[in-house]
Fold this protein.
Amino acid sequence: MLIWITAPSKSPINSSFSLKSGAPLISRFVPRKKMIRIREEQPQDIKAIRKVNIRAFGQTQEANLVGKLRQNCNHLLSLVALMENQVVGHILFSPATVEVEHGTVLGMGLAPMAVLPEYQRRGIGSELIRSGIVRLTSRRCPFVIVLGHAHYYPRFGFEPASRHGIRSEWEVPVDTFMILVLDESAMQGTSGMAKYRPEFAEIM
Ligand SMILES: CC(C)(COP(=O)(O)OP(=O)(O)OC[C@H]1O[C@@H](n2cnc3c(N)ncnc32)[C@H](O)[C@@H]1OP(=O)(O)O)[C@@H](O)C(=O)NCCC(=O)NCCS
């Protein structure tokens, strides 16, 4: 199942933030006394990331989407969760926009996120989200959007995007389309339609 789709935006991008790699973060989460390490994707992780997505979703669409985004977009934040050097989880953030009256504000969209079934419900997904938020905050990303379960994402600070006058381009239940505002001043007065990368449309 996927979540987000989008169409290409032709609007100029007004807001920019650094998407350069940061230093690896060590998670404080220790499930069953084993350390989880979160770090950015490296070339040797690509096969394992595909496997994690296929196993978590039970289909290849999300894994294919990750591959296409990796191929087409230089500004991804792709994190893996490692346990004993094995990739057990993955999260991807890709550029997303909010179209406003005089242009476009650039932020990031969260999707997909996947944890190997046998490692789920141990907090690994939460650690991937938190680590992503820390990194994007330090890169001065103004917002992150997500389309997902309304009881899960608010614990990380997400709230209905409708509170900010920001809407999805698709008809989705209003409480499932959420935003995390990381830079209040950059987002001041920003409202309009949010869009994800066009690759998302292909898997819907
Ligand atoms: C979603 C996912 C990445 C969460 O990873 P995780 O390591 O299990 O997450 P955590 O242990 O940090 O958090 C578990 C919480 O997520 C909730 N959760 C997990 N998957 C959920 C889902 N599909 N729907 C609703 N809630 C979900 C659980 O209910 C649990 O909530 P609780 O803490 O209130 O009990 C993982 O379950 C997964 O890979 N699912 C299949 C792929 C998927 O649906 N990805 C999300 C859409 S991109």
Observations:
- The pocket of coenzyme A is lined by residues 3, 56-57, 111-115, 120-126, 148-149, 152 (CB under 6 Å).
